[in-house]
Design a protein that fits this description.
The chain has about 160 residues and is of the alpha+beta class. About 30% of the residues lie in helices and about 30% in strands.
Length: about 160
């Protein structure tokens, strides 16, 4: 598996992001969806990632800079065929590595609740994320969940 940056014009990526948007909207109460569309993922504060097996897309994810020390995990999604293959963990690990390289001290994320989101909750907890209060203007609802991961401070030698 390789993880690439960018390439939001690839038809496989566009199709997966469109599916993601539909499912998030269909399984979330009004006003609680915070996924980014293609234009939202093309801003300078976003690093978009895609995981591939040869020419086959496995999944996507993004890192958004909230401030000089904090990043937010966005748009995590594996293809149906890639679920259970460690794609989400690999993308999340890549995001955390980018965050550490940039000197971030924390990664945060917002996600929903219900059956569609259970796999994401398990992944984030397994990676070490813990529940946290809302951040970056998010509003707490019965549907939304917020997580944070403290990153080690850079070691200077």
């Amino acid at each position: 598996m390789r993880i690439d940056e960018g390439d939001l014009d690839d038809p496989q990526i566009i199709a997966l992001l469109e599916l993601h948007a539909r499912e998030m909207s269909d399984h979330s109460p009004p006003g609680t969806c915070h996924f980014l569309d293609l234009s939202g993922l093309k801003t300078p504060d976003i690093t978009f990632l895609s995981a591939w097996d040869g020419d086959t897309l496995l999944g996507v994810g993004a890192l958004k800079q909230l401030d000089p020390l904090t990043g937010e995990v966005k748009s995590m999604r594996a293809t149906a065929a890639a679920r259970g293959r460690g794609v989400g963990f690999a993308i999340l690990d890549h995001i955390a590595g980018l965050a550490r390289d940039r000197g971030y001290t924390a990664l945060k994320l917002e996600t929903g609740t219900g059956p569609l989101f259970e796999g994401a909750h398990a992944l984030y907890r397994r990676y070490g994320f813990a529940p946290c209060p809302p951040f970056a203007g998010y509003v707490e609802t019965d549907f939304n969940r917020f997580y944070a991961l403290d990153l080690p401070a850079p070691q200077f030698q």
